[in-house]
Predict the structure of Transcription elongation factor, mitochondrial.
Amino acid sequence: MWVIERFLSSVIQRGQSGLLRRSLRGSLPELELRYLQCTCCWRSRIPVAGFETLNASLSSEPCKDDDSSRPLDACYTSEQRAAILQLLNNGSPAELASIKLLRGRKSINIVEHRSKNGPFKSLESVVDVPLLKHKSAMVVFDSILNPVKKERKVRIQLARFIKPEVDRSWLEEASSLVSIVCGTNKIAWAHVDRQMMVLDWQQQECPNFLKGTYMASAYLNDVSAVASLLPPASFYLIEKSSISVQNTALFPVMAHMRTVEAMLFALLEPRITPPEPNIPPRVLNMMRTAVGRHFGLMVGESRTSGAQIVRQMMTESVTEKLPRVNFPQELLVRYRNYFQMGSRRGGDELCDALLQAVAFYELLCEMTVSLLLL
């Protein structure tokens, strides 16, 4: 007969430990193996957990929210205390602010306290931080041990950055696109494929832009010359200017942009007679503000230069194994000095054309992923 009676009596005598009374915070501790021996031969042994170790770990019962008499360290296991102190002693202000109840002044108080007094050595010492008391400290500790993961739902409506509306499946099947940006005296374009490889990237001077009486024939000559240089692609993406019609001071520039835009649409869109409903438009508009928001270039309603982002992309194309954008060597050599601070080479349109193409692919990818997660 096995000595079960002896074993059970020892457990009953430790009734205060509550072996099966409650659930644990976190995982069970590693238990030391002990053995039960057969009373007949005293040779056969069965390994069991050392219940002294288990009962010691179970003795740290969870504190109730209104139980301020019990030390905070007694409410958590050693592993949990180590995890809490690790974050409180090493977490950045941003990491601390992401914890429940630590937003604002409390996270700053923690950083200031540990800088002045050294790292926290116990959970009880945390209540010395201003604005943190026993109850609020427990909420913070529980939040550290059981963080709430907030899923960021990215919902991007295609119509917000692409005009006219086109079915998403057509865009996803596109092999490449040409991104076109019109300036006051030039037109730039970037031909980029789905693998984010820059196939062509250049600009063309337009001497008749904003000159004289804005002759339509002169404009048409310049725009037609550019259209003849554009490579074939699945779609042509023309930047839609954000200049308001109500801005009377910039009305001539807005009229210029709209004129060039209309001519590009007419020259690049294939003429199909009669129109077929199942064929998508090949020429699209992309909102300039959508590109600015994607790259964090918006300051209020104005968009700042993206030259620094383009320089970083060109550098990563050489230094990174998986760069954001891949550039051929000849384009890197040609434009290596175009986007430097104080450069007068006039690379704004080139810069915007590339960023527009990159933003298009990345926004389309984000939208596809968000739809799959719904």
In short: Strands lie at 33-37, 45-49, 162-163, 176-182, 186-193, 198-205, 235-240, 283-287, 298-299, 302-303. The first strand starts at residue 33 and ends at 37. The first helix runs from residue 4 to 13. The chain is about 40% helix and 15% strand.
